[in-house]
Write a structure and sequence with these properties.
The protein is mainly α and 155 residues long. The protein has a single domain, classed as Ribosomal protein S7/S5 (Ribosomal Protein S7), CATH 1.10.455. The chain has 6 helices and 2 strands; from the N terminus they run αααββααα. The protein has a two-stranded antiparallel sheet with strand order 1-2. A hairpin with a 2-residue loop joins strand 1 (72-79) and strand 2 (82-89).
């Protein structure tokens, strides 16, 4: 256990849109410390989204992220030898983090040529409330709803 809680490091906004949310997304997208590559992939994906949707790409991205952000999750808890899945509210920082990681993970699994196209496809699907990321959110909510009976075990 730590003596002192770790300080939250400030995230600098991205150079193009001047948005902290974009930088957080790119930090999750980045592999092996290649941040410039991650930024170029993201910006290319946003341009593709603008072409396909005929809307502001950043707005579509934010809408998509909002659509796939979960509100509740289930956590395992052992009570008297049995393990129960207990539904719990998620704190705001974790909500966005989970949504970003799901979106990136499912984008990587898509069958399209480049990562930018995969990401653009996933963003467009999430904005329309369809696709693998939105399904993951729905499954998470369904699981929490099914285990609502165990919510009195909450700690």
């Amino acid at each position: 256990m730590r003596k002192i809680k770790a300080k939250k490091r400030p995230v600098t906004p991205d150079p193009k849109f001047n948005d902290v949310l974009v930088t957080r997304f790119v930090n999750n997208l980045m592999k092996a410390g290649k941040k410039t590559t991650a930024f170029s992939i993201f910006y290319e994906a946003i341009e593709t989204v603008e072409k396909r949707a005929n809307e502001n790409g950043l707005e579509v991205f934010k809408k998509a992220l909002n659509n796939v952000t979960p509100q509740v999750e289930v956590r395992s808890r052992r009570v008297g030898g049995a393990t129960y899945q207990i539904p719990q509210e998620i704190r705001p920082e974790r909500k966005t983090s989970m949504a970003m990681k799901w979106m990136i993970g499912f984008a990587r699994k898509r069958n399209e040529k480049s990562m930018a196209n995969k990401l653009a496809g996933e963003i467009l699907a999430a904005a329309k409330e369809e696709g693998a990321t939105f399904k993951k959110k729905e499954d998470t909510h369904r699981m929490a709803e099914a285990n609502k009976a165990y919510s009195h075990f909450r700690f």
